[in-house]
Automatic annotation (TrEMBL):
A Pfam family recorded for this sequence: MrpF_PhaF
Principal subcellular localisation of the protein: membrane
Subcellular location as annotated: Cell membrane
Similarity section: Belongs to the CPA3 antiporters (TC 2.A.63) subunit F family.
Keywords assigned: Cell membrane, Membrane, Transmembrane, Transmembrane helix, Transport
Domain of life the protein comes from: Bacteria
Gene Ontology molecular-function annotations: sodium:proton antiporter activity
Originating gene: phaF
Transmembrane segments annotated in the record for this chain: 12-34, 41-61, 67-91
Protein known as: K+/H+ antiporter subunit F
Its membrane topology: Multi-pass membrane protein
Originating organism: Ancylobacter defluvii
Lineage: Bacteria, Pseudomonadati, Pseudomonadota, Alphaproteobacteria, Hyphomicrobiales
GO CC field: plasma membrane
Length: 97
């Protein structure tokens, strides 16, 4: 029995998306390691966690489990607060006033 065309297209699309998100994560990791300034490294870290969240979402779509979506939500919340804290540290030199 063969799979319907829609299932095949979805599978190939998810595989292609995961490959491109993996490539974007590699570029962000390069920016984290090489970035000449701290602002570049924070931007690379921000891009890295967004890409990790997107990778988890594509894995969740492929597997059909909600666990990956909850993990992506946690990464999004913690990544955003971490980026805000690092940006505040760079601006003022302290996080908590």
């Amino acid at each position: 029995m063969t799979a319907p065309l829609e299932v095949l297209i979805l599978g190939w699309s998810l595989t292609f998306a995961q490959l491109l998100v993996g490539l974007a994560m590699a570029c962000a990791a390069c920016r984290i390691l090489v970035g000449p300034r701290a602002q570049d490294r924070i931007l690379g870290l921000d891009t890295f966690y967004v890409n990790a969240m997107l990778l988890l979402l594509t894995i969740g779509i492929r597997s059909g489990t909600t666990l990956y979506f909850e993990a992506a939500l946690a990464i999004g919340l913690l990544g955003f607060s971490g980026t805000v804290a690092l940006a505040k540290f760079l601006m003022r030199g302290e996080v908590i006033e």
